[in-house]
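Appendix B. Worked example

We walk through a single record from start to finish. Start with the input: the chain for Arylsulfatase, Paeniglutamicibacter sulfureus, length 727.
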Amino acid sequence: MVMDDMGFSDIGAYGSEIDTPNLDAIASAGVLETNYHTPPMCAPARASLLTGVNPHRAGFAYVPHADPGFPNYAMELPARAPTLAATLRNAGYSTFALGKWHLTLETNLSDGGDKSSWPLQRGFDKYFGCMDGFTSLFHPHRLVRDNSAVHTEEYPEDFYLTDALTDEAMGMISSHQAGSGARRPFFMYFAQQAVHGPLQAKDRDIEKYRGIYDEGWDVLREQRFKRQLDKGLFAGNTSLPARDESALDGVEPWKDLTAEQKIRFARHMEVYAATLDNVDQNVGRLVQHLKLIGEYDNTIFVFTSDNGGTAEGGSEGTRSYFSQFASMPGLPGSWERDVPRPIELIGGPQVYSHYPRGWAAVSNTPFRKYKTHTMAGGVRVPLVLSWPAGKGQGLHGIRNAFMFSADVMPTLLELAGVPPMKHVQGEMALELDGVSRVQTLVGGEPEDHTQYFELQGRRALCTHQWKLLSPDRLGPSWDPDAWQLYNVLTDPTEIHDLAAEHPGIVHELAARWDSEAWRNTVFPLNDDGTLLRVRPASELELENPLTLYRSSGVLERFRSLKLTKLRSFDIELDFEFTDRDAGVLVSHGDQGGGYLLYVKDHELHLSYNAYGTVLRGRHALDTGHHHLTVHFLSLPDAQWQISLTDRDGMNKVLIDVVPMMVGMAPFTGISVGADRCGPVDWDLSERHRSFPFTGSLGPVTYIPGAKTDLNPELFAELEERVAVVFD
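Next comes the structure step. The output line below is what the pipeline stores for this chain.
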């Protein structure tokens, strides 16, 4: 089971105040690893964990929202790297995957895309979850079962994704047992969508944590660290890094916050705790099911996270996740990254929120920095391994020997008695980078190791004693003497930089990092940020006009965005209605941001959800047939003006100025004839649910127009780079 963006200290066994009795029981019965390392971002970590290969060799220098065309950015698992699932299936196992995948190029996520890097083509018999990097826990933007999108008109009012994934998991295991009984073992890869943003939880779980975080992040961080020392997770002379610019990126002291900030920030953390609490509840359900069918004792259960807690919520947190997520250059300084919403709505289905950076510092106690960083806060996460039937082998107690994500596969294969595959479809399989850590997990002496790290130019190299790192991106002005050096045996929290005292060790380890980088296809580095903005020319066809029908279902997110993102565009609508007809003509987005057009009471209505603030416009219509064009005109400072041209050629402005949808918004794709999956307009949804159009609805055509003038120098430079790369 892989958590998403969960920090080192977030479950009780690692010092948390969050109620996780089921995970704590698993930890107390098995091995609790304190020195497990992972790449500092999700897809590289998952690729490495599933293949036993280092992330760049596995094609994931970054997450698959980029496609610059280099081998380390292939963004699909190598054909010659059999996954843990494929290896176990080859040995007679049934194999199941649930939840987040995020190992497929965005261009291949559509129903008609190349599925060679989908779960079923990578060794799994069954799959249910979200192929994308994250989603809403109340209204997932797109769920996939096996190789097909699940058609969803609307979700039940009590739907919650963590519960649904657990139901599916128990169903897969039960059907497996019914079909093969004890004759065939199973492997399950359960990738939780929680606790990645947007953070959302059930009311009763949030209420459980009411007031728990009123003392603030400084006090909670100290309390977690004390529990960690009491539990023996670290030596008594380990120090907690002081709150300064280099440790926590300038997190403001809790005592200096306003009364309103304290209330709002505490609510954000109550939601985070409730989200994780619900995961633990579902772990309990899954464990009870395994016990019920008699499989628990002989099941190896591994629990970990893909990277450390994230600071993406910023200093204030956000109630408008996609607005905060907007990172492209050229956005106006007035851009609202935390659209005000009532505090009581934070955590519910109407708000896409994330906690402030101060709580991420608590999540990563006792380490410095966060997700995407190569300091310990980004790369050291929990790993719990329990195997009741194997307890006699010594798989019990706290272990502090180094382990990396690529080691998980060979470790589990050794425990299961299954050798790695040597050939894949007639070719030699890629050599594993990971090594089995069974000997250290059962209490053996720590083994020597060398492990590189790299993400966006931030680098590190770990050995048994030393950690060399460059905490900042390289960039054109990077100082080659800016390496930092830490003795991780005496200073696991990376406080005392010894680079000036040991220049020879720095030089030796820097040369070793270079050697490892070349061996693992780490280059080119995205050290100035521009590499991720290079897109292949093949994507240009996705920007051609597209006609959709009521039967088209929900168009995939990325394909939808290519029609609308950072540009003007038109929507041509052809429909007919009578006095009795009403409903949605087209929708695009959800509560995180988007727009929809619907007919009601002889009017065409526009609802525009500006990251939480809903703006509305309308236009009177006679009954009968209509052919209308709605225009989204790009304005300066990332804004649109929305107008329409009716059948008489008359033009009317529906909404004069709205903030443009940027980044990942709108997240739910385009839907014709109903507001499917996540609702754009909450008030409308409460009255009419998905509000299917009852009249006659013909084709809906999107016509992409001119691209925005946001940062034209950058776009000109990128076009030049693309021409060179893809010539």
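Two observations about the output. The chain has three domains: 2-326+335-441, 451-531, 535-725. The first strand starts at residue 2 and ends at 3.
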